[in-house]
Amino acid sequence: MYDDRTTIVRPTHSRKRPQVWLQHPSPSRFLLVAPRTLMSIFVQQYMYAECTTIVQQSYDRRTLKRDHRTMSEQKYMIKNKGCGMVLDVTKGGDVVGSDIVLWEQHGADNQCWTYTHDQICTMLKPSGKDIALCIKDRVNGTLTMSECIHDPADGRIKDQQWSVFGADGTIACKDDTDWVLDCGGQQKEEKITVTRRANPPTSSQQWEWVPC
User: Fold this and answer.
1) Do the strands 176-182 and 193-196 form a parallel or antiparallel pair, or are they unpaired?
2) How many other C-beta atoms lie within 10 A of the C-beta of residue 156?
3) Which of these, 166, 201, 202, 196, lies nearest to 179 by C-alpha position?
4) How far is CA 93 from CA 90, 98, 113, 124, in A?
5) Which of 101, 134, 153, 188 has the fewest CB atoms inside 10 Å of its own CB, making it the most exposed?
6) CA torsion sign, 57 to 63 to 67 to 70?
């Protein structure tokens, strides 16, 4: 700037020159910059992970709802991955009280099932009633076929509710997923039971749903 005598007057304060950190790779610069850089990276990765988790959970919920809806509209054979045989209601027309066994696949109604409201029901419907796969005795793990319970307040309904979406192929008790359907020695006419889930599940505990 200029005063009245047109002589140059330099400012009394010194102007700080910009510090170009990249031109001075000193330890002190690293100590100043690194924490901020690392924090920025951490925040970005954390936010990405959180967003990914939220999107995946939303997708899983949509998929689960879609699978429930789709399965309730179709009928399936429940096929063991180890031996290739399927769940079979033994007594045909006399459904209630029947055992459930392994049998060679033929696709008749006593081998076809639906999955609705967590219940696995046979396509055999005596007197038009829905009959569900049910735990008969939790001590020895025996199963039977019994009339579907539709009242959620009825404590017996837990013996008819199953979780079938395990990534390991198991069909588990909904109220205790450590217990799963098991076909033992995987022989024809082998009775299906509920046993403790193996880690990893054995082939006798792994199932697939095949459209009838």
Assistant:
1) antiparallel
2) 11
3) 196
4) 9, 10, 15, 7
5) 153
6) positive
Whether 195 and 123 share a structural domain: yes
CB atoms within 10 A of CB 82: 16
Cα–Cα distance, 80 to 180 (Å, whole number): 13
pLDDT of residue 77: 98
Range(s) of the domain holding residue 188? 75-211
Residue 29 sits in the same domain as residue 84: no
Contact 96, 87 (CB under 8 A): no
**Which tokens hold the place of 88?**
């079979």
Instruction: Find, among 85, 90, 89, the residue nearest to 103 by Cα.
Output: 85
Based on the fold, state whether residues 79 and 62 are members of the same structural domain.
Answer: no
Please indicate, yes or no, whether residues 99 and 185 belong to a single structural domain of this protein: yes
CATH number of the domain that residue 80 is part of: 2.80.10.50
Question: Are both 187 and 129 inside the same structural domain?
Answer: yes
Q: Structure pTM?
A: 0.67
Encode pLDDT of 50-92 as tens digits. 544 443 444 344 444 445 555 667 999 999 999 999 999 987 6
* Residue 119 near residue 134 (C-beta atoms within 8 A): no
First to last CA, the chain: 94
Tally the C-alpha atoms within 13 A of residue 110's C-alpha that lie toward its C-beta.
18
Residue 3 forms part of a structural domain? no
